[in-house]
Amino acid sequence: MKEVVVKCPATVANLVCGFDILGMALKEPYDIMKLKLIDEPKVVITNKDDYNLPTEAEKNVAGVVLLSIMEKLGGNIGFEVEIEKQIKPGSGLGSSAASAAGAAVAANLLLDNRFTKDELVQFAMNGEKLASGVKHADNITPCITGGVTLIRSIHPLDIVPLNSPSLFVTVVHPQIEVKTSDARQILRKEVLLKDAIKQWGNIAGLVAGFEKGDTDLIGRSLEDVIIEPVRSILIPGFDEIKTRSKEAGALGGGISGSGPSIFMLSTNEATAKSVEAIMQEVFQRLGIDYKTYVTSIAQEGVSEISTK
């Protein structure tokens, strides 16, 4: 195999209460990446979109992942990569993770799957470090494995796949930018013990809810008393959307990653579409452009579309 095209799914990190440790893959939106193996030790990047992302490998999320793979392999191996982003950078939907995970998985396909999924996550985290300054895996892991994942530990890496009931996901991406690095800077460095105890209960409840397929427990556990109260001030209309979505029957939801996207989980498509209408109405009234998706949890991560 000399060339491969892959589809790289958007992801929702944190799942409200699980900051940096929980994430899930979405069926929509997704990026398309084409990777070609070359016999020169270099990375050549071409963007097929209008986001003007860097094409120098050292400054590009996919580029640094491929460079780390090349460093591991040695020899005269290099890559040409074309990236068509449909997940807007700065959306809170794992745009950088899609590039990083897509590069790692596509390169592995070209290299006869010589690396394990855990090794691919390690490579891809180099891209997240470039994007946000931190090696976090809550977007990377579900993007590679699909479904819902728990990152029990980064050092050493310990990934726990979780069961995921058949849920609908409504997402609104207001067309404002919240940089992950900025959204991390405003977080409190210390938390009260009583808040930590409440958060631990919600994380445990959410994991148990996924494992048991208990949607009521999932809904009760979608509460964040540490991160969301700080970050939500960056997103106009957040509180209204969350309150009205739950009144309309959504299980709950919150900020997707560092924002500005907001996600809500529902047990049926009719509720998910009602939530979409609420999101649209709020941002129309606020005069903010937006894009919405009614989708579901992707059980497959980065996947091969075609090969040569």
UniProtKB/TrEMBL annotation:
Pathway: Amino-acid biosynthesis; L-threonine biosynthesis; L-threonine from L-aspartate: step 4/5
Keyword Transcription regulation: no
Keywords: Amino-acid biosynthesis, ATP-binding, Cytoplasm, Kinase, Nucleotide-binding, Threonine biosynthesis, Transferase
EC number, UniProt record: 2.7.1.39
Top-level EC class: transferase
GO molecular function: ATP binding; homoserine kinase activity
Residues holding ATP: K88, P89, G90, S91, G92, L93, G94, S95, S96, A97, A98
Subcellular location(s) per record: Cytoplasm
Pfam families per record: GHMP_kinases_C (PF08544), GHMP_kinases_N (PF00288)
UniProt catalytic activity: L-homoserine + ATP = O-phospho-L-homoserine + ADP + H(+)
Gene Ontology CC annotations of this record: cytoplasm
Keyword Signal belongs to the record: no
Start and end residues of each GHMP kinase N-terminal domain: 65-147
Family: Belongs to the GHMP kinase family. Homoserine kinase subfamily.
Function: Catalyzes the ATP-dependent phosphorylation of L-homoserine to L-homoserine phosphate.
Protein name: Homoserine kinase
Native source species: Lacibacter cauensis
Lineage of the species this protein comes from: Bacteria, Pseudomonadati, Bacteroidota, Chitinophagia, Chitinophagales
